[in-house]
Write the structure tokens for this entry.
Amino acid sequence: MDGVLVIDKPAGLTSHDVVTRVRRILHEPRVGHTGTLDPFATGVLIVLVGRATRLAQFLSGVEKEYHAVVRFGYSTDTGDLTGKSTSEISEPTRRSSPLTWSDREIEAALQSLRGEIEQIPPMYSAKKLQGRKLYELARRGKSVERKPVRVKVCEFEALRCGGQFLKDNGDGTVDLAVRVVCSAGTYVRTLAEALGERLGIGAHLAELRRTRAGDFSIASAVTLDQLNKKVDEEALDTILLLPDAALRSMPFVDLTQRDAKRARQGIAISLSQHSDGAASQGENVRMRDEAGKLVAVGFYDAASNSLQPRVVVPPE
């Protein structure tokens, strides 16, 4: 029982809650995830099972895609709908009335937040400072200085609904559905707040759904109920990706039986008989045995044209 599960996380559960439930369903203690989703958020959560937990470092820094709803009208202390309002809905001015914005104004605000930008991690986040998670400090009423983090927003676009960008909620707030493709570590909540600032009005995140993490999309995700059903049907293999398949975007080298054994011992393997040496210096490469099973992930050393195992996957 070693591999990767693509779970469609439901709202109301933490990522740790999902891991706990997967452990219980599979009766497997070695379970972890590769990227936290807020409790109110849904969508793709990559869960590693068994020996595949060793691969977390190669799956946690991947590009993410989200569908979200930004709500204009007021901001919250958490940056999302779970927080307390930090600004009252006031009588809108021409500048701050969303229903008077043109498509061009919305696009200009979105454009200003694309590319490489700096974000200050929110206090209500799982980011750690001196070993403490920021949200633990925030819940105690403390706020600490956070250094800006450079992230990349590859795509940030508004989505039309019924031909319109904006949806009037009838209570003084207006929603804008957006799609975001960004680097790991990007806070979509902070993007929502920044978008409101660009448009001159308080804003927060009303909905968030992760639709992709690296090569794993929501189309291949299963719910916890579906996972439980697959286990009952003894059909887990139909949804559990093998460790090698989980790293399919990484280049690979097939080793002889002798070299596979050496790799498992952490010994560097010469590529003179296995490859043309086309890998880049320091690049991660899958090291597979003759049956195509993952033995290790190694890094390429150009000077010696060899692979040095970085993480070894022990045999069954």
Confidence is low (pLDDT under 50) at residues 90-94. The helical segments are 15-26, 56-59, 103-111, 134-139, 188-199, 224-232, 243-246, 257-264. DSSP finds eight helices and 17 strands in the chain. The longest strand covers residues 203-213.
